[in-house]
Amino acid sequence: MKSLRYFVGLMIIIVFTLGSCKKWPDSGEEQDGDSKLMENLVVAENFDWKTTKTVNIAIKLPENDPYEVVRVYTEDLEELLYIGYGNQTTFEVSTKITTATYLTTAVIYYGYNNRYLPILLGFDTDLIYDYNLDLGLKSLKADDCGCEGKLRSLTMKYTGSSSASIRVEDDKNDEVMFSNTVQPGGTFSFTGTKSNGDMEKKINFFVNNVKKETLQVDCKYNLYEGDEFGDFTIISGTSEDNLPLCKASEECGCDGGLVTMTLRYIGTSKASVKIISKQGRSWITSYYGDVEPNAEFSFTGDDDDGRLNNTLYLYVDNIENSSIHTSCSEDIEIGDTFGKFRIVKGFNKNNLSLCGSIEPVDTDGGGGNQGGGDDDDGSGGNTSSKVDGTLAFEDLWPSKGDYDFNDLVISYDFVVTKDNQERVLSITATFKVYAFGASFHNAFGFGLPNVNNNQIISVSGSDIVSGSDIFKIASNGLEQSQSSATVIVYDDSYRIMTHPGDGTGINTVQNATYVEPETIVIDMLFYANGSFASGGSIKFDDLDIGNFNPFIVVNQVRGREVHLPNYPPTSLASSSFFGTFNDDSDAGTNRYYKSADNLPWVINIPAVFEYPYEKREIVYAYLKFAEWAESSGTIFEDWYIDKTGYRNSTFIYSPN
Predict the structure, then answer these.
(1) d(CA 12, CA 20)
(2) In this structure, are strands 337-338 and 341-347 parallel, antiparallel, or unpaired?
(3) Which of 143-147, 577-581, 641-645 has the least mean pLDDT?
(4) Percentage above 90 pLDDT, the chain
(5) Cβ pair 227, 79 in contact under 8 A
(6) Rg (CA), the chain
(7) SS3 205
(8) Taking phi first (over 0 means left), then psi (-120 to 50 degrees means alpha), and beta for anything else, what does residue 295 get?
(9) pLDDT at 501 > cutoff 50
């Protein structure tokens, strides 16, 4: 039995319904095809209509080498699902990501130095791996060589022109590791002075009592047999577990675009450094923080496959200092200088390093790790993870719609930048409005249910009329009076995209004038000027960006929100609409935005969605949709992919 609230809200809802175009087909209007109508589908009560799933990642890192970055790709390496560093105490990556439900395999990369082979794993909702299993850590290495932890022994060749007194000391305690006269071309060996056999972080070479070279031996920088340092050449060496140094690989270069880069700031005084790039109409911040002279900092790409965007723009104290082209159409090398920055490292997604070399510098006290992280152990800098897809709305809620899911078609692309402790630093959210087949003047927004309002410093980019009586925006850019962080992206579809004068809405009617999609970019800062927001930091795992809560506000009535099925309304939604007309929401059981026959008003697709024409039900355009729904998503999980037999293109909108 419907609630009495039905009668309370009846007159308001009738006005809404009459104000909208009558969207479902007349009884005499037929749609070709042999699929069922949406209203005839038999859908289980507990079906959530999700085309995505939450995947828990649990990767135990090598106990003697726990500071490298972890990357998780799709099997074809076309999409980077996650990138980040492990907990520096537990040496484990423990987080969650959102993927398409049909994905069941992933490839794990650990580090960039090819010490570990890529691992192909199967998964459902848990992606688990332990680099310390009895399978044998060394069997997982690309070679039985490398530099792990710190060096324990070195054999060097002296290449000076005359015999000399050679002395090697550790840089920390000045303990002598070797002292003798060596002839030109002669070799000499020495071992670490620490109780476990390790060398200190750096060692110094003296020739005739004059300090000539300093060599960093903590394996933060790769060392190879044949490396030359002034009058000294590495002949051989070992690190932990007697692992020998590798011979220097002749393979290097800039092939196919870089996925990560480490830069050294060579300015003379501490500065605020920002690294940004352009992706479409979005400006993405890869790094932002205060950096000391000679400090080094790292960041990663944000393209679908993890690559850096083509051009990086380097800012010092808010003034553009230089730029670096990273697409590999122009050669760049380690050691190249761009303004006040010098390239220290760079890798593509297949772990191919840039060519070139650079002398190490003492970065003690230099910082450079945004968010305050300490990278002395070799743990890296910032990483960027992303999630994207398309939302397709019906807007007649709580009445049923025509199930063409084109009252608003809007894509989203969230790029989350985080530090090496997985603390969120910033989010760039790019939305592209492709179409709306509605007469209503709808707004669009989204919530981050796990983020408090005081954990965000600022939100910018929203397209809202100044002084709006409908949307009250706080000083940090979030909507006021919400229990969790809520962003209004724009206030009226018809204001941001001008109706061309023909067709229902925009870009839904065949042969009607096409309007270019509109892009809106939202920038959210969680960390700025050396500090997180007053409410403290939030971890990437807790953010759970793949389960953000998008919604429309129907026809400028703030309380009338439409969300994904079983996603809760915001604090400003009116409960008077629930349980009226075709809605069968029940807050007591956390059931929201489903009809009595379990149909939704919104779907979320992890791809660019090619939507149906106006008044053409989705079941006619997507031939596996009905079977997917009636199976509770157990078959045809990829119903939206363009495969043979999956679509009837005559019902899918195409620009003229």
Answers:
(1) 13
(2) antiparallel
(3) 143-147
(4) 74
(5) no
(6) 29
(7) strand
(8) beta
(9) yes
pLDDT of residue 380: 66
> How far is Cα 358 from Cα 333, in angstroms, rounded to an integer?
10
Phi/psi at 311 (5° precision): -130, 130
CB 189, CB 154: distance < 8 Å = yes
CA distance 75 to 190: 45
Cβ–Cβ under 8 Å, residues 377 and 369: no
Q: How much is the pLDDT for 143?
A: 54
61-70, 162-171, 598-607: the lowest-pLDDT one:
61-70
The pLDDT score that the predictor gives to residue 249 is 65
Q: For residue 293, report the phi and psi dihedrals to the nearest 5 degrees.
A: -55, 140
Q: What is the DSSP string of 545-591?
A: GGG-EEEEEGGG-TT-EEESTTPPP-TTS-GGGTTSTTB--BGGGTB
Strands 126-130 and 52-60: what pairing?
Answer: parallel
Under a CB-based contact definition with an 8 Å cutoff, are residues 328 and 255 in contact? yes
Say if residue 487's pLDDT is above 80: yes
Residue 571 has pLDDT above 50, yes or no: yes
> Rounded to whole angstroms, how far apart are CA atoms 564 and 412?
15
> Please, are residues 139 and 133 in contact by the beta-carbon 8 Å criterion?
no
| pLDDT at 281 > cutoff 90 | no
What does the block give as tokens for 564? 């994904």
Distances (CA, A) of 638 to 101, 546, 628: 8, 18, 9
**Per-residue model confidence as pLDDT tens digits over 13-45:** 333 333 344 343 333 344 554 457 999 999 999
Dist CA 395 CA 405 (whole Å): 9
In the chain, the N- to C-terminal Cα span, in Å, equals 48
Q: 145 phi and psi, to 5 degrees?
A: -160, 165
Which are the contacts of 158, defined by CB distance < 8 A and separation ≥ 6? 164, 166, 182, 183, 184, 185, 186, 187, 188, 231, 232
b (16+ CB within 10 A) / e for 200-215? bbbbbbbbeeeebebb
CB distance 577 to 559 below 8 Å: yes
Which amino acid, residue 108? Answer: I
Task: Give 505's DSSP letter.
Answer: S
Please give the structure tokens belonging to residue 515: 């309007």
Which pLDDT band, with edges at 50, 70 and 90, does 376 fall under? very low
Cis peptide before 244 (omega within 30 of 0): no
- What is the SS3 assignment for 613? coil
Query: pTM, whole model, 2 decimals?
Result: 0.82
Mean pLDDT confidence for 487-511: 95
Work out the mean pLDDT of the chain and round it to a whole number: 89
- 91's tokens: 């040496």
Beta-carbon contacts of 320 under 8 Å, excluding residues fewer than 6 positions away, are 313, 314
> What are the backbone angles phi and psi of residue 176, rounded to the nearest 5°?
-80, 125
